[in-house]
Amino acid sequence: MLTIRTTLAAAVLPLLAACGSSSDSAATPPGPAPEVNCAPGLPALEIRGGAGAADAKTYRELPFVVGTGTGRIELSYGWTERSPLPSTPLTATTLDLGLWDEHGYRSATGFRGWSGSRQGRLDNGQAPVFVEAASAERGYRPGPIRPGTWYADLGIAAVGPGGADWVVKVECKAASGATPADDPVDRHHVARDAAGWYHGDFHMHGYHSNANAPGDEDFVAQARAAKLDFLMVTEYVTGEHWRRLGAMQRANPDLVIWPGREIITYHGHAMTHGETPGVLEYRHGFEDVTLGQIQRLAKQEDALFQVNHPTTFPGPLFANFCRGCAFELEDAIDWAQVDTIEILNGPLITELGDLGLPLPLPLGIENPFMQTAIDLWERKLAEGYRITGVSGSDSKGVDAEDERERKGYGSSATAVYATQLSRPALKSAIQAGHAYVRTRGVAHSPALVFEAQAADGQRGIFGDTLRVGEAEKVTLRATVTGGGGQTLRYFRNGRLFRSVNINADPFEHELEVQRQPGSEGPLGTFWRIETKDAQARTAIGNPVFLKAR
């Protein structure tokens, strides 16, 4: 049962039907409008309830009515486990917090922010999150505070054994100030008007994703140290940074600042690279919201759509540790509209602490979720979906300096061959698959060149398609720089075809190949290369495709 109460003894109001999941998609729940219960001078409002196992991966929109004169809203929350046993990262309850304003909880205009489980925790002694006209907490949007029904968004991400009791506290205060003017990046900025290989990290969290994340200058400094050329600023859920990164771009004209956001659902994570102000949803499964709908709207706004870490931390063992990290929504999205997929997320070399296991010793093995992600990617290629494999650090910029090479920004990087260093050129190159992953980052991974040439003169690089007959020979040429002592491996339709020792630097190798019609899919026979040292793969190429004339 849910209750709303203030600290005044007589003030008890019933919650409306919108507090639970509903098939009604209206922005405002039915029933008479309640009286004002949040305004300057009124006591703090407390909304209490409980969550059991059946509530996991659901959302509750908790209404409160803001009165005239309010200039600041503060939100805090907390929960307690019902079980007397101590919780662990693999069993703990996790609840998320967000906010929607008087425009309603189904309107992109009404979205005011989301902080997940990292801020505003009463049980951790954290300060409340806040919004006001002039400023807002990280992850939230400043703007006018207008009277009407607002909604605290309580996401029940995971529930521990025995369930949990929770409380959401709302306080409305007076405040004044002007809303800052928007200052977005120039989407057409050209950082370098020359063709070449440019490096990016396709999963970078910043200021709005962690309470201790770096400001603009430090963010850029860390990215530069990793030798990145384009910065995919993909904050959790929010799009607030889209309004503010113009100054970062102007201060760094030799880089491309490319804002996006990570869509955190409880059934899988995805990414949009590019601003999508018309869609700020994330609540797959709430009312009629689906990730497929979010994808369609994002693509209409010209963003790239990415599937993130699809096989990372699968349930049930890791269901509470990494909520929704494993991608369970294969049937909910249109794979023909997926541009990129993370085949490496996080550090290449994994230690036990990275897995949420209560063991202190280092493990030092290749990321165990990379091969399964590659398997999914190659299955989708075989099914006929042209999806580019990329990597992302998933860093928040808070890594210790001695850990940055392993898991900081650019700890892995994706090299993209584009006609210039600009968002439009990079976007075209990424969609064409002109890319390969450098799993140890720019400084510590081999550089690859991969070319295919047919007898009739057709040529291609990573991602390209050559039209050839069944018996026609195609020459594959691989050049590896900085890979001495490693192994060059060729894969045909996802299966290892040949391994070659790299005994020179640079190392050049040619292989004559053909199509294999018996095992090829709609895209034809696809060939790709990797390099590998004694511990792990060091570079992973996107394929070239040999297709029937």
From TrEMBL:
- Write out the entry's keywords from A to Z: Signal
| SUPFAM superfamilies xref list | PHP domain-like
| Entry's transmembrane regions | none
Q: Fetch the PROSITE patterns from UniProt.
A: PROKAR_LIPOPROTEIN (PS51257)
Q: Residue span of the signal peptide, if any?
A: 1-26
Name the NCBIfam families on file. CehA_McbA_metalo (NF038032)
Please identify the protein, giving its name as recorded: Polymerase/histidinol phosphatase N-terminal domain-containing protein
Provide the species name.
Solimonas fluminis
